[in-house]
UniProtKB/TrEMBL annotation:
Entry-linked CDD domains: YafJ
InterPro entries: EgtC-like, Gamma-glu_amide_hydrolase, GATase_2_dom, Ntn_hydrolases_N
Domain (Glutamine amidotransferase type-2): residue spans on this chain: 2-244
Residue stretches spanning the membrane: none
Pfam families from the UniProt entry: GATase_4 (PF13230)
Source organism per UniProt: Paractinoplanes globisporus
Protein name: Class II glutamine amidotransferase
UniProt keywords, alphabetically: Glutamine amidotransferase
Length: 276
């Protein structure tokens, strides 16, 4: 399916995570260890925010394999950000085109997804008819991931993100049931408004795709005092990833099944996720 990461913390160059780690996102595009497919070559995208600049995030999306995208490599080596989402795509049936590459953007919001809505072609019309008419013209692609995003926006993502995504998942399951489709939802989702980052792990079958969050910096510094790179990062720095970016002992914690997490200033949050 796909691989993605979300970073929030001390501003860094994008290539530090996209290219330079032991099992970077670009490496995962060719050699995924925990994904459904080993290769994720149907497009790549990154959305990032610049402090003090235009609040609408910048967006780069390409349709080629991430490992061969020279424009992404050039951009990543000179672009610094304290909050960004990046995604490599393995299509589940919709075309390989720029408008189908993640992250998706609406105003300040970014959204990326790994997974699928089972029998999406059969459910698509009913799902799309529930999207707010004012939001509908902004849809530009044909993926289930983008439909999920606009349903979440319709159900209040900008006001109550967790509850909105729970409503989205519940609505998809309701529509699927009406069509006789069992266990339709498979998702890990990352979304942000440029201030906080929300991550969700859920599937109707109860066996969701992998998702991990990074250990608190203070604990990592205690475990690995020899790593100078950890000294330059703030205690607020966090990562959420589809699969670990390396084998550093104690660095990665699995996100529990049917749960959500929030990266934010101060204490982060971890809670249970229940479709409504």
């Amino acid at each position: 399916m796909c691989r993605w990461l979300a970073y929030s913390g001390t501003p860094i160059l994008l290539d530090e995570l996209l290219y330079k780690t032991e099992h970077s996102l670009i490496d995962q595009s060719m050699h995924s260890k925990l994904g459904v497919e080993t290769t994720n070559g149907d497009g790549v995208g990154v959305g990032w925010y610049e402090a003090g600049e235009q609040p609408v995030p910048a967006l780069f999306r390409g349709i080629g394999p991430a490992w061969g995208d020279v424009n992404l490599r050039e951009l990543a080596r000179v672009t610094r950000s304290g909050l960004f989402l990046a995604h490599i795509r393995a299509s589940t049936g919709t075309p390989v085109q720029q408008t189908n590459c993640h992250p998706f953007r609406y105003g300040r919001w970014l959204w990326c997804h790994n997974g699928a809505i089972h029998e999406f072609r059969e459910l698509r019309r009913d799902l799309m008819m529930a999207i707010d008419p004012d939001l509908f013209p902004s849809i530009s692609g044909s993926t289930d991931s983008e439909v999920m995003f606009y349903l979440a926006l319709t159900f209040g993502l900008r006001e109550e993100p967790v509850r909105a995504v729970e409503r989205m998942a519940g609505f998809v399951e309701q529509v699927a049931k009406a069509h006789g489709v069992a266990e339709p939802m498979q998702m890990t989702v990352g979304t942000t408004d440029g201030d906080r980052v929300w991550a969700f792990r859920y599937s109707s079958v109860g066996k969701s795709r992998t998702l991990f969050y990074s250990t608190e910096l203070n604990a990592l510094r205690t475990m690995h005092p020899e790593l100078e790179v950890l000294r330059g990062l703030s205690e607020e720095t966090r990562l959420i990833v589809s699969e670990p970016l390396g084998e550093l002992k104690g660095a990665w914690q699995p996100v529990p099944e049917s749960s959500y997490g929030v990266i934010q200033k101060g204490a982060d949050e971890l809670g249970s996720f229940t479709p409504r």
